[in-house]
Amino acid sequence: MGSVMDYVLMELRLLRQNLALSQEDFGRSIGYSASHVSAVETGGRPLTPDYAVAVDRAHDPAFREGQDGRFSRMLRELAKADPDWLREWIECEQEATLLRWYEPAWVPGLLQTEAYARATLSHNLLYTDDLEQRVFSRLGRQAILSGDQPVQLVAVIDVMVLRRPVVGQPGVMAEQIAHLVKMGELPHVQILVVPDEAGIYPGLQGGFILATLGDGSMVTHLDHQVRAQVVNGADDLATLQRTWEAVRGEALPRRQSLDLIKKAAQTWT
Asked: Is the pTM of this model over 0.90?
């Protein structure tokens, strides 16, 4: 476990000890079980944005005054351990007012559960040495979907994303699809599905993200086998915007997409 993570977990334990609370009492104060508190403190489970907010809400006076809480801020610090190319994109993500995300192969990272994130990242040989750091960072990035002014997210996924199993872990997809249903009901999140009937359509060669920043400018994120790339050239952006419109045109409307996701959820139970 990296030094930044070690520090955060140590601070969590110290907070609870300084409050003279058992793991059971601390868990009760934040709405989590004692076993969950124990797993987070020992690194068995990542510190998720929801958990950090729960701790801050219960025990950080600054949070109650409308400021960022201590552990929510620490989650952002964890992103600094990411590679330069990923850190550049994370900064864009945090500045964005709108994210348009197309993904033909995976559930988009901002919508992944902890178990699904670990399963997908564990298959990337580049991440074997720091898997938990990557999972921790990915979950931390999801904080932009919560709060008083969450980013607007429009995610288009291929229907095969809903059907692709995590081999040997059948419960992972059941939990993940249920999470997509929950996220898709949020007013600032749209999850659209490209159905089988679309056949071969533009965009299947790879996913991308278009981010509209606060000043109205736009950047895009392209994933490759070795690393991702942040692109802001006018020609590239124009091409990807055309691709986005073509992909979105093949997707079902929001309500029909959500119905399809709910139907897929039943196949994993």
From this structure: no
